[in-house]
Each structure stands twice: as structure tokens, then as C-alpha cells.
Design a protein that fits this description.
alpha+beta; Neuraminidase; four-stranded antiparallel beta sheet; 29% helix
């Protein structure tokens, strides 16, 4: 009886140990499965953490590229459109062509000496103030030589002589040139056809510059008097004052050594006010 009890106890102990072992093995397996699942989840999360930013960055780069392409395309189209609508100009030739003179200083018909002013007429001929030779020369288009149309007979007081020319304007209406001779302090009208001149005015002032308005009146800038005057055919005086004449100064009604003159299409007079470092505009009354 006791022996049976002992065996029964042993069997129960064995069964108990066996169940405990089985439970431990099950727990171990469950733990391993859980561990595996967590490892898999961790790996997936890690992959997602790595992949998602890469996808976002690539997407942004694609968007930027598309935007850049759009901008470049727009700029290109704008440039092409601008180039198509912009007037096309030929590139200028930086190499000049001698069209008058260029044969050294001298008084030959193919030479000039200290030229100071030019006029291009309707036939493309060049009218040149050849100051050093006291003459006006006409250089026809394509010619190798000039033709003397005024002066050229040395300095003097004779009708065919000029003295130290300073300025010249074209008087088309009378087929003449208006010439200022500084050496004689006078302004003359030199008729081109008969090679004669008519004295207009005599001045005892510093060098003068000339201009002509649409009505044929002559404008004279007097540097020494700091004024601009207008002279019309038939005037017996020095003309009327149109600008300056209030002493040397920088006020709006004053000039300081006026030099070159010019007119716009509306008949306004522009004066180079040299030592005031400005250009003055004057509205002229043509009454």
C-alpha cells in the first residue's frame, strides 16, 4: 500500500514536471513569436522611415524641375517673342571710311586744313568749313577732290576773301550759305551761284554760333554778351533779344557763355549754356 502511494506520488510529480516543462516551452514559443513579430514591425517601420522622406524629396525635386522647366520655357518663349518683335538693326561698321580729305594738312583740292564744321546737302554733298584755308569747300558724293565755293584766296577784305571762319548754316531758300567770319567779326550771306556775298551784321564780340528757324530768321549766340539774338532780313539793327541778356549768371533768364543753338520740330529754341553746364529751352514767338 505504501509502495503504491509512493508510485502514485512519483507519477504525479513526473506529470507535474512534464506539464511545467510543456508550459515553459509554450511560453518560450509565444515569446519567440512575439519577438519575431516585433522585429518584423520594427523593420517595416524602419523601412517606412527611410523610404517616405526619399519619396517626399524626389517629389519636391520633380516639382522644382517642372517649375524650372516651366520658367525656362516661359523665359525662352518671351525672349523669342521679343526678338521676333524687336526691330532688327544691322551691326555698325567700326571702321570709318574717309570721304573728304585724308591726304595730310594742306590747301590742295584733295586736302583740308583744320576743318571745323560741315553740312550735308540733299545731294549728299559735304559742305566743309575749311578754317585753316579760309575757305568753304564742297565735296560731292563719291568724289576724290573738293571744289572751292567760297573764299580760298588767302585772308583779306576783298569780295572773294574770307578770314578765320567759325560757323556756317545753309540758307536753302536763297541757295546761299550764312557764314560767320571771326577774323572780321561779321556775318555774311554767300550766294553759291554767282559767288558773291552780302554783309548782314558786324559784331565786335567773342566767337558766335548760328542757327536758322523755319521762317528763315537767323539766331546768333553772343558769348561775350551772354545772350541770343534773332535777325530778320531787312533789320537795320542787331536784331531782337530772345534769350539771356540779363548779365552772366545761372538764373532762368540768364546765360553764361551760350554756344550752339538748335530747334525742335515745334520751333522751340535750345541753347547750350556752356559754363552753367546745362541746356536751356526757350519758346519762341514768331509774330
Amino acid at each position: 500500500m505504501e509502495l503504491n502511494n509512493i508510485e502514485t506520488c512519483d507519477n504525479e510529480q513526473v506529470n507535474s514536471n512534464s506539464e511545467e516543462t510543456s508550459t515553459n516551452q509554450w511560453r518560450l514559443k509565444c515569446f519567440q513569436k512575439r519577438k519575431l513579430i516585433w522585429i518584423i514591425i520594427s523593420i517595416v517601420l524602419l523601412i517606412l522611415i527611410i523610404i517616405i522622406p526619399i519619396i517626399v524629396i524626389k517629389t519636391k525635386k520633380t516639382d522644382v524641375k517642372q517649375m524650372s522647366t516651366t520658367v525656362i520655357t516661359t523665359e525662352t518663349l518671351t525672349k523669342l517673342t521679343t526678338e521676333e518683335t524687336r526691330p532688327k538693326y544691322k551691326k555698325y561698321n567700326q571702321q570709318g571710311i574717309t570721304v573728304a580729305g585724308g591726304n595730310g594738312e594742306g590747301d590742295g583740292l584733295n586736302q583740308l586744313f583744320d576743318p571745323s564744321n560741315i553740312i550735308i546737302d540733299e545731294n549728299k554733298a559735304i559742305l566743309i568749313v575749311d578754317k585753316g584755308n579760309d575757305r568753304i569747300v564742297e565735296w560731292k558724293y563719291g568724289s576724290n577732290n573738293g571744289q572751292i565755293i567760297a573764299g580760298g584766296n588767302r585772308t583779306g577784305d576783298e569780295n572773294d576773301q574770307l578770314c578765320y571762319l567759325m560757323d556756317m548754316i545753309d540758307d536753302k531758300e536763297n541757295d546761299a550759305l550764312i557764314i560767320f567770319e571771326f577774323g572780321k567779326n561779321r556775318i555774311v550771306r554767300w550766294f553759291r551761284k554767282n559767288q558773291t556775298y552780302h554783309k548782314i551784321l558786324v559784331f565786335g564780340v567773342l566767337p558766335i554760333h548760328l542757327a536758322m528757324d523755319k521762317n528763315g530768321s537767323i539766331y546768333i549766340s553772343e558769348i561775350g554778351q551772354n545772350e541770343v539774338r534773332r535777325w530778320k532780313d531787312g533789320d537795320t539793327t542787331h536784331g531782337i533779344l530772345v534769350a539771356g541778356g540779363n548779365g552772366k549768371g545761372e538764373e532762368s533768364n540768364q546765360l553764361n557763355s551760350p554756344t550752339h543753338l538748335s530747334f525742335d520740330d515745334e520751333g522751340n529754341l535750345y541753347v547750350v549754356d556752356q559754363y552753367n553746364h546745362r541746356i536751356q529751352k526757350f519758346q519762341i514767338s514768331y509774330d
